[in-house]
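Box 3.1 A note on notation
Throughout this textbook, protein chains are presented in two layers. The first layer is the amino acid sequence; the second is a token string describing backbone geometry. Keep the layers aligned when reading.
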Amino acid sequence: MRHRRALASVVPLTAALLLAGCTGSDTSDGAEGGGEASVIAPGKPGEEAATIPADEVDEARGEDRPNSADVSYMRDMVEHHGQAIVMTGLAEKHAGSKDVRRIAERIAAGQQPEITVMEAWLEENPGDGGDGDGHAGGHEGDHGAMPGMASEADLDRLRAARGAEFDELFLELMIAHHQGAVTMAEEVLGKGNNEYVEQLATGVIAQQVSEIGRMEKLG
């Protein structure tokens, strides 16, 4: 398990696995003596790097191989976060409250980098996760069916609102949006296989639950 966790922490965004060479005090001696090559997987902050025998690397990677639930989650969350960015972008000019503008800025600052990370992960994991079911995701491309997504009619209302009316509607829609994101993250924690996706989903839950609490106080 430690091997799997060490690898999972560096696989995303093409993080490097450093070839340590042959075991033994001297590289040439190790080669002559039949020493086995090893791979150093840098640990998480505060943790030591793990030295993994080269013949166990493929096995460790296989245990952490993304499945269709992982790929579905990442694809759906790019779209889900994207709608949040659209909604927060309206707050700068339409919000009546400084607090609402501030929470909107906070949400955008947290979710835009996550979109970048998710898109990079999907570039490295573009398939169906190896399950062979051929599905792009659990929602089968119907992003409107994702939990918490605002309808086009809701977005039109938000675009037309100003001041206190905007603030009230923004908080209502964004709280529901965040709750939907938490639901999606909880689902992938139960169905996914990739540890990096698990770490990301856990972070989404923590961040969005915190922001829900802030928004509820403003409502």
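DSSP finds eight helices and three strands in the chain. Residues 1-33, 129-141 have pLDDT under 50 and may be disordered.
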